[in-house]
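hey can u check if this looks right to u? its 78 residues, i copy pasted from the old doc so theres a chance i mangled smth
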Amino acid sequence: MLQVIHDQFGTIGSILVALLAFTLLILWIAAISGLHEYPYSDKRKLLITALFIIIPPYALLWLAKDMYRQYMILKGKL
């Protein structure tokens, strides 16, 4: 598999693909841990965690929304 990625993207491209995949994995884990900081009910946390695992882009969208919400709180607009 690594050989295929290297053949498709070259050396620099394969390093960038690996870095992107690693970054997305870290953000996905951050979204799951960030969810458990909120005072949601256990049932809702379980549902959202299941959605995060089944649909990984949903976790990244939730994380972006949460970051924007926190930004608005810091600016005093929310």
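The chain has one domain: 2-75.
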